[in-house]
Amino acid sequence: MKRIAALLASLLPLSLISAQNPTSPHPDMAAQRAEATLFFQRSLEINDLASKPQSLEDSHHLIDLIAAIFAKDIPPSRLTRSLRDQIAQAEYETANSTPTLIPEQRVADAWNRYIYTIGASPDALVTVAEIHNLRDGSYAAARYMWSRGSRSIWSTPAIYATTPDQKLADGCTAVEVLRILSDITNQFGNLRGARERVKAGVLVSDSLKPLPPGATPPRASVSFKVGRRDDPVGEAANRYASDHGTRALIHALQTLTNDLFRGQT
């Protein structure tokens, strides 16, 4: 099973791998502080790289930085180099030229083809409006968290394609597509939330704004919802691999990646 997981991971977009910031089973406080400092520094570097025109070398470095955060959960770079090169090339092109941004329609179409292929429930299908609303929510939350001083890979606002007035652009950068796939695959509730907001005609960015410089962040409240894991995509992928074999699932994932980044290679 570990070999299969490693093989799949080497072919998947990095964000499709279900991974959190890695921690050892029993870390001491010094190790935790060192790791937190490292993640903080990497998030600053990722945001800085994504916030300015990139050379192809910069784009490769950006993808490698993201992969490094999940280094304990994915295969080494020698096994993922081809995929990283593909995504880095796409990031280089989409980050430097608005006409080459990846359209939301392409993201929705590519994802829906993958869902049809693996036989997931219709609930996992997406619309362009849902993709846009999901992006809007992630971008608004990232800007807000960054303005509060929260620095992590999940709160780097510069990865999003925006207009000169800081509004969300109609298309996506390659790294932003990875974030979308991460949400749909690992946090399916985020898609459900976007779906409800589309029905209500609501955007998160209408109400959640970055804090002005020097403003004191309000006290935050945290709530937890306990229940069955909401993972229709993962469950369908497991069934598909069981029924058709691992190679068939790998092919479906390769097709998804190629559909998303075609024209950027």
Structure report:
Keywords: Signal. This is LPP20 lipoprotein. Residues 1-19 form the signal peptide. It comes from Granulicella aggregans. It is a single chain. Helix 1 (2-11) packs parallel to helix 10. The chain is built from 10 helices and 2 strands. The chain has a two-stranded antiparallel ribbon. The chain has one domain. It is mostly helical and 265 residues long. The two termini are 32 Å apart.
Please summarize what this structure is.
With about 260 residues, the chain is mainly α. Helix content is about 60%, strand content about 0%. The longest helix is centred in the N-terminal third of the chain and has 22 residues, at about 30-50.
Please describe the structure with a list of short key phrases separated by commas or semicolons.
265 residues, mainly alpha, two-stranded antiparallel ribbon, 10 helices
Calculate Rg over CA atoms. 18 Å
Task: Count structural domains.
Answer: 1
SS-based class? mainly alpha
Main sheet overview: 2 strands, antiparallel
Give the proportion of residues in helices: 55-70%
Spans of at least 5 consecutive residues with low confidence: 1-11, 17-24, 220-227
Which H/E pattern describes the elements? HHHHEHHEHHHH
> For the residues shown, what is the average pLDDT?
82
Number of strands: 2
* Form type: globular
The number of helical elements comes to: 10
Strand numbers in spatial order across the main sheet: 1-2
Kindly report how far apart the N and C termini lie.
Answer: 32 Å
In what range is the share of β-strand residues? under 5%
Signal peptide: 1-19
Organism: Granulicella aggregans
Keywords: Signal
Protein name: LPP20 lipoprotein
